[in-house]
Structure formats: C-alpha cells, structure tokens
UniProtKB/TrEMBL annotation:
Chain segments annotated as transmembrane: none
Keyword terms of this UniProt record: Transferase
Gene Ontology molecular function, alphabetical: transferase activity
Name of the protein described by the UniProt record: CoA transferase
InterPro entries the record matches: CoA-transferase_III_domain, CoA-Trfase_fam_III, CoA-Trfase_III_dom3_sf, CoA-Trfase_III_dom_1_sf
C-alpha cells in the first residue's frame, strides 16, 4: 500500500464556487475536502448563511468588545475554501471572474436560470474561452420545464417532491396526518452529493475527450430520485405512501418502541432477526405463528403483532434491551440527541469532529468527511474563511495585479 498523500486525490483541480446557501457549497466542500482548490466568490454582502443564526461565532473587536461573526450555519459547508469578495455585477468584477475561469477546471453556481448570462458568466460564454470547463448549475427545478424560472428551496422541494407526504405521524380518528419536514435540509445535501458525483464523472469524461460539459442539477429531480423504495412502491404496485410515523412500509418490526425510560429502535431486516427478537422477549410462540413467520406476513398483520411486542418491551430499560438484543445480533439502538451523537464512543473513535483554527484565532469545530481513503485521505487545511479573507492574495498571485490596480478596484467597490 502506498503512503497516504497529503494533497488529496483532487489536488490537480481548481474550482470556482459562485454558489451560496447549502446545496452548492455542500458540493464544493466535498471537492475541497478531497483536495481541490476551491475559490469561493462572494458578493460584498457575503453568503447569506453567514447571517443565518444564532448561534454565531464571536470575535473580539479592537476596543476589546465581543461581537457576532459568522453564523454556525456557514461553517458546516465552507471548510477548505478561499473567500474572494468580488462584485461581478460590475463589468470589472465580471472580467476578473472570466479571467479566473480561463484556467479553472470546474465552476459551480446556483443562480436562477439565465441569471449569469448578463454578466458573461453563463456556460456558453465561458466555454468559448475554456472548452475544458466542467460547469455545474444547481437550481430548484432545472434548466428546462414549466417550473424552470421558479426559485426553489429545500423545504419547498421536500413538499413538492413527495417527501413530506410520507413523513410525520399517521392519521388517526382524532387528527389528520400532519406534514413534517426533516430536521436537516436533506434535499440540499443530497443534491450536493449528486452534483459532486456528476462533476467527477464529467472530469473523468474530460480526461478521455478533452472537452468539458454543462451539468444541470435540480433539487426536485434529486428529491424524486431519493424516493427510492417509496417511489418503487408506487411505480410497481400503485401503492401511495402515507405518513406512518416511525413504521416502515415494507418491513416489520422496524420502528421506535417505548421502553421503561424512553425509546429504542428495533430494525429486523430478515426472519432470523425476528425469531431472535421473539426469543429475547419470551414470545417464541409469535415466531412460529404462520401469520408472522415471514416479513410479508408481518407487514400484512402488523396491527396484531405490534401491540404484543410493545407490551413486552416496556418491561425493559433502553440499555437493558439493547444489550440483550445485541447479544443475539438483532439490529437495535438508541435515539441520541445531537450532543449524545458527538459523545458516542464510535463517533469519537472515527474522529468525526475536526477542529480548525482560522487566521483570526477562532477555533471552529467541523464535521469530518465521512469516507476513509487508504492512500489519498480527505484533507483539512483551512477553517471556513472570513468574508474576503483571500481576496488580496488571489488578486496579486493569480491575476498578477499590482497594488495600484487593486486599490482602484477596491475604491470602486469591485473587490473588498
């Protein structure tokens, strides 16, 4: 096995990141963690998520006071990037970005359809000066179709894409089902992962053809793709998914169950695991009942099976039943709070928290890249940057501008 590389597998690539909020920055942080140089181009106001708090990072002012800096939200998806503050709504600013694009490998943007054309920063304009450029556009609804010009946000797409029709508590005699979104912006995050995967596929294609291409990646398309088994349940069996709380439409038992001191998750994926569960609970007769012997039978007769399991499980504490079930290789686990997640011995052993110190002395706790490479691991070389922290260096080193030219741009508000 070769020695691990310190530069990362994508260290030969340069990314222009014109995106903001979450889906685009999530994409480019993946690329940055894997070694790509990511130049985050921000307006003078900065990425909106710098203000999406509290909580905020704090910093000490020159007079010794403490003030809010960037929101914690911003730090979750902007590690390992350079922040360059350029107002490309001004012709001089747009020209700076075009110059950078001439030698870039990848550009990621999430403006409205056609929004960058007036600045000469659309794909066709930049392809003319750099045909090797892989240009990824992330939008709510894609570049085509009747909704193409609509703005799209994660919450909206969770609803339109079907996810919220199946999350939340089921309908009861007393109350209709209530739509519930997920606790994180999961559509943005999945779109970021699809976009990063697609970008790397386009780079692989470029290695063979020498030509870049345009990638059209939409939140709605990604959400529809994420419907997975629920989408297949409809397409194959015309079964409309509905809110089922913590129940699974295709597996039983597979949900959170009340115990003496809270809840425990039990997730039986096969008949052997169900039989082992019944043995631990002293319900061997259920394992031999023909109604419950197979998963298909348990799904059909869940209303008869679940109450019997619930009664027995309430005799145990959470830790007692987890210990017993783990001995019998029955998948189970607790419902952890976020503090409990980061205190979990497995999470600690996997070193999932990475502290990074910014140039101003602020230490920021970030979450590690989740995949482990044997030879080219993810790298963590820069904390989420302050707005415009790298502007001066880039103007001098990449664009070869002298102090007078930089000062002229600064006074005219093109850079900050």
């Amino acid at each position: 096995m070769s020695a691990p590389s310190s530069s990362g597998p994508l260290s030969h690539l340069t990314v222009l990141d014109l995106s903001r909020i979450l889906a685009g920055p999530w994409t480019t942080q993946i690329l940055a963690d894997l070694g790509a140089r990511v130049i985050k181009v921000e307006s003078p106001a900065g990425d909106d998520t710098r203000r999406w708090g509290p909580p905020f990072l704090t910093r000490e002012t020159d007079d010794g006071q403490t003030e809010n800096a960037d929101a914690a939200y911003f730090t979750c998806c902007n590690r390992n990037k350079e922040s360059v503050c350029v107002d490309f709504s001004k012709p001089e600013g747009a020209e700076l970005i075009r110059t950078l694009a001439q030698s870039a490998d990848i550009l990621v943007e999430n403006f409205k359809v056609g929004g960058l054309k007036k600045y000469g920063l659309d794909y066709d304009s930049l392809r003319a000066i750099n045909p090797r450029l892989v240009y990824c556009s992330i939008t709510g609804f894609g570049q085509t179709g009747p909704y193409a010009n609509r703005a799209g946000y994660d919450f909206l797409i969770q609803g339109m894409g079907g996810l919220m029709s199946m999350t939340g508590l089921p309908e009861t005699d007393d109350q209709p089902a209530q739509p519930v979104k997920t606790g994180v912006a999961i559509v943005d995050e999945f779109t970021g992962m699809y976009a990063a995967t697609s970008i790397l596929a386009a780079i692989a294609s470029r290695d063979q053809t020498g030509e870049g291409q345009h990638i059209d990646c939409s939140l709605l398309d990604c959400q529809v793709a994420m419907l997975a088994n629920q989408g297949a349940n409809w397409l194959v069996g015309q079964r409309t998914p509905k809110p089922m709380g913590n129940n699974h439409p295709n597996l039983v038992p597979y949900r959170a169950y009340p115990v003496k001191d809270g809840h425990v998750i039990i997730a039986c994926g096969n008949d052997r695991q169900f039989r082992s569960l019944c043995q631990v609970l002293g319900l061997e007769a259920l394992a031999h009942d023909e109604r419950f012997a197979t998963n298909a039978g348990r799904v059909e007769h869940r209303d008869r099976l679940e109450p019997a399991l619930e009664v027995r499980l309430t005799a145990f504490t959470r830790d007692e039943i987890i210990a017993r079930l783990e001995q019998e290789a029955v998948p189970c686990g607790p419902i952890n709070t976020v503090p409990e997640v980061f205190d979990d011995p497995q999470v600690k052993a996997r070193e999932m928290v990475v502290p990074l110190t910014r140039a101003d002395g602020a230490t920021i706790q970030t979450v590690a890249y989740p995949a482990r490479f044997s030879a080219t691991p993810a790298r963590y070389h820069a904390a989420p940057p302050r707005l415009g922290a790298n502007t001066q260096t880039l103007l001098r080193n990449d664009l070869q501008l002298d102090d007078q030219a930089i000062e002229t741009l600064r006074k005219s508000g093109v850079v900050a």
